Amino acid sequence: MMKTNFILLCLVSALLLSYAPTAMPLTCSLSQLSSCADAFANGTPPSSACCNNIRNALPCFCQYRNNPTLSGYINSPNGKKLIANCKVSLPSC
């Protein structure tokens, strides 16, 4: 009887662990990139704050690329220059 209870407890524990909450959903906000506005618009060298924000926002770039309003900035010569200057690789989408 005790062995059966132990096995049942293990199964229930495994089941509960399999339904553990996952990571919080990704929230992408353009305000993350406000420090990069001049670099995107004018091609000026990005600040270190801009590059840090670009690195932090990398998971959002697929959403940005799929947005018709934003994709032009990201794929523009200034956008590509900014990404190169920050030494990051954009995710493939």
Automatic annotation (TrEMBL):
Ranges of residues in domain Bifunctional inhibitor/plant lipid transfer protein/seed storage helical: 23-89
From the record, what ranges are coiled-coil? none
Q: Which UniProt keywords apply?
A: Lipid-binding, Signal, Transport
InterPro entries referenced in this protein's UniProt entry, alphabetically: Bifun_inhib/LTP/seed_sf, Bifunc_inhib/LTP/seed_store, nsLTP2
Q: What organism is recorded for this protein?
A: Dendrobium thyrsiflorum (Pinecone-like raceme dendrobium)
Q: Where are the transmembrane segments?
A: none
Say which domain of life the source belongs to. Answer: Eukaryota
- Assigned protein family: Belongs to the plant LTP family. B11E subfamily.
Q: Where is the signal peptide?
A: 1-25
SUPFAM superfamilies assigned: Bifunctional inhibitor/lipid-transfer protein/seed storage 2S albumin
Q: Which GO terms describe its molecular function?
A: lipid binding
Designated name of the protein: Bifunctional inhibitor/plant lipid transfer protein/seed storage helical domain-containing protein
